[in-house]
From TrEMBL:
This is Uncharacterized protein. Pfam families: NUDIX, WHD_NrtR. Residues 157-215 form the NrtR DNA-binding winged helix domain. The lineage of its organism: Bacteria, Candidatus Lloydiibacteriota. It comes from the Bacteria. It comes from Candidatus Lloydbacteria bacterium RIFCSPHIGHO2_02_FULL_54_17. Residues 21-131 form the Nudix hydrolase domain.
């Protein structure tokens, strides 16, 4: 419908269907990965995309995305979830006018295997061609996570309760997609005072024994920049 500067007549209004989609992140094999599921339907052949679907009349967007995560991906109660963006390109869905309220969710590697049969973990930076506009959704989700880990403690959702500074740095490097200077990274994170020594040492393997840390608070914090 062309924009004319006037309000449309009631008979000219066409309503869009509202859906939710979710980009579920984890870290596996030192790669930042997302969960893809097969997309069924006559418009797509051998296609994959992010878990999602239509919002039911009695649901909120949050209710909807949790239902689709559980039913289509086997993921229940992610460690972290936030609303990302509303994707509303007119031609994003070949079936008709559908607006997607997209989310990101994080789960630790220890839960990555407990997903629905047929779902696969794929490197977010090497996505194949996906159904709908899911490549665009994936790109925006990656940008959000890359930026957010630089000024919050969101990376804690990929880590075990106790971890070394090396493991924390590796998590940041995996999410940000770049190598960080070891000395500068440690100086910054220790100065921000969001970590506490666990009073334990990690031993084993070829590496030297390393001090273990934990996050000072069991919630996400906004920092001055890591």
């Amino acid at each position: 419908m062309a924009t004319t500067g006037r309000s449309p007549a009631p008979e000219d209004i066409r309503f869009a269907v509202i859906a939710t989609d979710v980009v579920i992140f984890t870290i596996l094999d030192k790669k930042l990965k997302v969960l893809l599921i097969p997309i069924r339907g006559t418009h797509f052949k051998n296609a994959h995309g992010f878990p999602g679907g239509m919002i039911l009349p009695e649901e909120t967007a949050d209710d909807s995305v949790k239902r689709h995560m559980k039913n289509k991906a086997g993921v229940e109660s992610p460690s972290y979830m936030e609303q990302l963006y509303a994707f509303s390109a007119v031609d994003r869905d070949p079936r008709g006018r559908v607006v997607s309220v997209a989310y990101i969710a994080l789960i630790p590697p220890s839960r990555a295997e407990a997903v629905t049969k047929g779902a696969t973990w794929v490197d977010i930076r090497k996505l194949p061609a996906l159904a709908y506009d899911h490549n665009t959704i994936g790109r925006v989700a990656l940008e959000r996570l890359e930026n957010k880990i630089k000024y919050t403690t969101i990376g804690r959702h990929f880590l075990p309760p106790l971890f070394t500074l090396t493991e924390l740095q590796q998590t940041h490097e995996t999410v940000q997609g770049e190598v960080l200077d070891k000395r500068n990274f440690r100086k910054k994170v220790l100065a921000l005072d969001f970590l506490k020594p666990a009073g334990k040492i990690k031993k084993g393997g070829r590496s030297r024994p390393a001090e273990l840390y934990r996050f000072a608070k069991n919630k996400d914090l906004t920092l001055g920049g890591i």
